[in-house]
Amino acid sequence: MHRILVVLPLYGGSLPIGRYCATALQEIGCLVDTFEAPDFYSAFTALKHLRVGIERLEFLENSFLQLVSQAILAKVEQFQPDLVLCLAQAPMSRQALKRLRKDGIPTAMWFVEDFRLFTYWRAFAPFYDIFAVIQKDPFLQELESIGVHNSLYLPMAAQPSFHKPLQLAEAERTHFGADLSFLGAGYPNRREAFVQLMQQGVGFKVWGTEWESEPRLAPLVQRQGERIAPEDAVRIYNATKINLNLHSSVHTNHLVSNGDFVNPRTFEVAACGAFQLVDQRSLMAELFTGSELAQFTSLEDLQNQIVYYQQRPEECAEIAQRARIRVLAEHTYAMRMQALLDFAKERLPNFGKTHADQAWPEDIPSELRAGIQELLQNLALPPTASFGDVVSAVRGKAGQLSDLETALLFLDEWKKLYVK
C-alpha cells in the first residue's frame, strides 16, 4: 500500500479540498497522514500585529514559512511517504522541495487555482515531480516551457460521503434555504452581476466573504459575510431551490466570462442532488452532458433562466438527479486520487518502492501474531499492510499505546539497530 503525506494550506478554499483528498486516498487503500498547516495559521497572522515595517514583516513571514517547511521535512522523515501531495498555497518552500528531490521523495502539487490570476506557480512548479492542474492549454504548454514535463490535467470533484442529499429540519431549511442563493467570494464580476439580479425581486441570499466593498448587496449577504464552513455549505445547497454558480473573474466588462476551468461548486452541488444554474465553461462538455446541468451564457440568459426554472421544480429535480448520477460515476475525489497515483506510477520509475523491504519479520513472536489482525482493523489497515505500514500508523496514532503496539515499535527499533 502507498503512503501519502497530504500537506494542507494554512487557510483558504483549497483547505477543505486537501481534507477530501486525504479521505479519498484512504478510501482507495493508501496509508495517509496529513500535515496540519492550519495549526500554524494563528501564529502566522500574529506577525501582522507587530506594527513593524513592510520589509521587516516580509522577512518575518518568509522566515516563518521556512520554519513550517522544516516541520514538513520532519514529518516526512518520520512518516517516510511514497508521495508528498501539496494543495495550492501549501507552505512548502523551494528549499524544502529541493531537499525532498535530493532524498528521492516524490512530490506532487494539485494547483486548484486559475493560473492566469494566481501566478506564483511559475516559481514553484519546476521543483515538483508532478504538477496537476484544473486547466489545459495554454497552461500545460507554459508548464512544459519552464521544464515541467510531468503535468497532469486533473479537474475538480466531489466527496460523496460529505457532499450528499440531506434531510433538513424545518428550522434549517428556513435559515439556509432560499429561492435563489450563491455561496462564494465576492469577485468583481459577481458583485456587479448580483446588483443587477437584485432588481428581479427573487428571494436571493448571498453567502461567503469579500462582499463588503459593494454596500448595495449588504441586505443579501448572510452572517455579516463570514466564511462558511463546508458542513453549512452542504446545507445551503440542499435547502436552496436554485443554486447560482457564477465562476469568478476580476473583470467586469464581461460578467459571465465563459472561461475554461470548472470550479468545485459545480461538482459539490451536483453530488448533493441539488439544482444549479452554472455559467458555461469550455471544459464543461468533457465533464457533463447538456441534460445534466442548466447552463447560461450571459447575464440576460441567466435572468431568463431563473424565471423559467422557478416555475418548473419537477424539471429542476430531474436535471439535478442526472447531475448527481454523473458525479458519482465519474467525478469523485477517490477517482481523482487514483488517477494521480496511476500517473505517478507511469512517470516516476521508483514510485512505491520505498518500503519494499518493510515486510513482516519471519521470526515475529507467536504471542504478537495473535492480535495483529485485530490491530489492523483498529488502525483501518487492510490485511495486506506491511510491517512498516503498521509501525508508521502506530507512530501517528494519538492516545495511549496498547501492549501490542508498544511491542511492535520496540521490534521496529530493534530491527533498525541489528538487522541489515
In order across it, which strands form the biggest sheet?
Answer: 2-1-3-4-5-6
Q: What's the count of strands? A: 11
Rg value: 24 Å
N- to C-terminal distance: 23 Å
**Looking at the structure, what is the overall shape?**
globular
SSE string, helix = H, strand = E? EHEHHEHEHEHEHEHEHEHEEHHHHHHH
Unreliable spans are none
Mean residue pLDDT: 91
User: Given the helix and strand composition, which structural class is it?
Assistant: alpha/beta
Helix content: 40-55%
Helical segment tally?
A: 17
Proportion of residues in β-strands: 5-15%
Biggest pleated-sheet summary: 6 strands, parallel
Fold and architecture overview:
- By secondary structure, this protein is of the alpha/beta class.
- The protein contains 17 helices and 11 strands.
- It has a 6-stranded parallel beta sheet, sandwiched between helices. The chain has a 5-stranded parallel beta sheet with strand order 8-7-9-10-11, with helices on both faces.
- Strand 4, helix 5 and strand 5 (130-133) form a beta-alpha-beta unit.
- The two termini are 23 Å apart.
- The relative contact order is 0.11.
- The model has no long low-confidence stretch (mean pLDDT 91).
Give a quick precis of the structure.
The protein is an alpha/beta fold and 420 residues long. The chain is built from 17 helices and eleven strands. It has a six-stranded parallel sheet with strand order 2-1-3-4-5-6, with helices on both faces. Strands 8-7-9-10-11 form a five-stranded parallel sheet, with helices on both faces.
